[in-house]
Fold:
Amino acid sequence: MTDITKASRILADAFKQNILIDPLPADASPVDFDTAYEIQQATLALTGAKQTGWKLSVATRAAQAGLGIEGPLVGPLLDGRIIENGATITTNDVHFPNIEAEIAVVMASTPDGNATIDTVLDHIKSVHLAIEIADRRYRERQGPVATLADLNSTGYLVLGPEITNWRDMAFLNVPVETRSDDKILAQNSDPAAWPDPFGGLAYLAGFLAKRGTHLKAGDVITTGACAVPTLTSHGRIEAIFDGIGTAHATIKAG
Structure:
């Protein structure tokens, strides 16, 4: 049986001290996603960090099928780590900055646990281009179960330009590209490889309802990578959505 208390203490200490750790010991390693979620919640409580939203990963149907799951994996976004377009962080803030072009949503109100793609739209305040700067506390990359326990690799979120007229869905499935200092990190022009941001949001509402919680006004949700997540070191980072706009920030060498 997994020692959830031991696992969460190790991960919370790594988060608070901003240090890297080896894989969790065998007796503290989650064996399935349910256990990983238990560790994640216990870890978050021990960090004392304030949660201000949610992040979705493994957000495409193809990726979910590969793991045998029915929806995205869920983790927290944290207060002080949602930054404005053009902001700067340093290499002291992140260990392994993984750059992901994403669509983020800010909630206006609380959808119920039975929300559908159609009904969840009425609870949205705004939709934004975004860059998730995912990060991890492990020295070496881990599998999806261990990653989920580690706060689902939460790092920073660049909340980029607001998308006007988002209800017409014209922004969906445009070509997208990520760059670091003008070097192309990843490109995607395949609509089938995009996550469904509003389907993911409806899934999240139901996921949280089963766990006795809910989305609320002001929550920020980032809905999954629109191009392959790619590690970078430092420099100006961009997520360019063709014909829609660009989210950008800087990771400055510390």
